[in-house]
Amino acid sequence: MQRKRKRQEYMEDHFKSTSPEMTPEEEEEVLTAERYTYTSKGLAFAYLLPLGSGLGSRQTADKYVILITDSKPSSSASTKEQAMRLKADNVHVIAIGVGAVVDIANIQQTHASSPELGFVVRDFFGLMSVRDWIVSFICNGKT
């Protein structure tokens, strides 16, 4: 019950409806600003999701979160903490960094729940290169 309430609070705080209309100045600011990804917040939200049998999943089935990121977390320590929190709850975090300058060590050590679950691809088309491995790992428990 506590996770459900926290999930609702998260949704209200982070997904408030705003006008999709932007001035040209606001759009330019969004496009040129140096930004970081709030990866830890995404992983914290995943922790609040009901990944148990309440949604019809088997209690004994492995649970997975697939995280796709640019590898620039606003807080590496918080991102690692949230990934380990999910791992402690028996949820595997598969992390995929997308971009030409993504640091594989950062993805493996900070984002994924274990190093072998961290990948880097150059662009979104590169996701196809790890798709078969991920499907095999999730469906068969092996690579």
General description of the model:
The chain is an alpha/beta fold. It has one domain (2-140): Rossmann fold. The chain is 47% helix and 13% strand. It has helices spanning 2-14, 24-32, 39-48, 76-88, 104-111, 127-140, and strands at 63-69, 91-98, 118-121. Strands 1-2-3 form a 3-stranded parallel beta sheet, sandwiched between helices. Strand 2 (91-98), helix 5 (104-111) and strand 3 form a beta-alpha-beta unit. Helix 3 packs parallel to helix 4. The N and C termini lie far apart (36 Å).
Quick description:
The chain has 143 residues and is α/β, with parallel strands linked by helices. 47% of the residues lie in helices and 13% in strands. The chain has helices spanning 2-14, 24-32, 39-48, 76-88, 104-111, 127-140; strands spanning 63-69, 91-98, 118-121.
Topology:
Blueprint: H1 2-14, H2 24-32, H3 39-48, E1 63-69, H4 76-88, E2 91-98, H5 104-111, E3 118-121, H6 127-140
Parallel strand pairs: 1-2, 2-3
